[in-house]
Design a protein that fits this description.
Pyrroline-COOH_reductase; EC 1.5.1.2; ProC C-terminal domain-like fold; 53% helix; NADP; single chain; alpha/beta; Pyrroline-5-carboxylate reductase 3; 11 helices; 268 residues
């Protein structure tokens, strides 16, 4: 029997966001988590210890003591953990959030373990992430339901998808949240240029994006329709929209998602 319910390989931001989110939601206890990472900074180790997790630098020990293994290393680091993953047993399950790493590749890498691919974004840390799950065919229903429950507790939306959709989701949501941050930063900068203080501009920009997202979610209306509802003839909004269109705003957003999707495929 495994000593720890969850092991984590890769204690960076995404691995921490998932586990911390689950602990904050009350579906996982820190004492049942063991983390493998080089822990090159004291701060990184301490934030895991504050969750109640056990921290190790030897990946082999993490794998042998875990029932479920959260694989959250960077795609480029997979070759460095390949040898230790090869020793996994049939009673273990790997939950991978590694971008571009297919179920086929995971099966080749993770010994006899069962595998589930998951993609999500950073907002899972505060319970407002978006996630998709793709289990391999041999994952027991009871194990998958437990994994699904954990991600439902830390995300605003969780869907089960076919594997062919994973790269697009990674680009749209996993990378897309960074695109939204960039937009927020630019919107706030615009407010500062227009005469608002930095503090007020940031606060208003954040609330504006939150409000727009909530309007889309709660009304069910198309974003274009909601945009039209606040766009008066010869008004300020259409003047701003014209400037965005002139700068290629929508095209830039589309191209960002396409570029991120293509990069996912390159990593696979």
């Amino acid at each position: 029997m495994s000593e720890y319910q969850w092991g984590v390989l890769g204690g960076g931001q995404m691995g921490y966001a998932i586990i911390a989110g689950a602990i904050n939601a009350g579906v996982l206890e820190g004492k049942n988590v063991i983390v493998g990472d080089p822990f090159r900074t004291k701060e990184k180790r301490e934030k895991w210890l504050k969750l109640g997790a056990t921290c190790l630098t030897k990946n082999e020990e993490v794998i042998t003591q875990s029932k479920y293994l959260l694989l959250s290393v960077k795609p480029q680091m997979m070759k460095e953990v390949k040898d230790v993953l090869a020793n996994m047993k049939s009673d273990q399950t790997v939950v991978s959030v590694v971008a571009g790493c297919s179920i086929e590749k995971l099966n080749e890498t993770c010994g006899h373990a069962k595998v589930v691919r998951v993609m999500l974004n950073q907002a899972c840390l505060i319970g407002h992430g978006a996630a998709v799950l793709c289990p391999d065919k041999d994952v027991p229903k009871c194990d998958f339901e437990m994994i699904e429950e954990m991600f439902k507790a830390t995300n605003g939306t969780v869907d089960i998808v076919l594997e062919r959709s994973m790269d697009a989701f990674t680009a749209l949501s996993g990378s897309g949240i960074a695109f939204v941050y960039q937009f927020l930063e630019a919107l706030s900068d615009g407010g500062v240029h227009a005469g608002l203080s930095r503090e007020l501009s940031k606060k208003v920009a954040v609330q504006t994006v939150l409000g727009a997202a909530k309007m889309c979610e709660e009304t069910g209306k198309h974003p274009g329709e909601l945009k039209d509802n606040v766009t008066s003839p010869s008004g300020t909004t259409i003047a701003g929209i014209r400037a965005l269109e002139k700068a290629g705003f929508r095209s830039a957003a589309i191209e960002a998602v396409i570029a991120a999707t293509e990069r996912c495929k390159e990593l696979s």
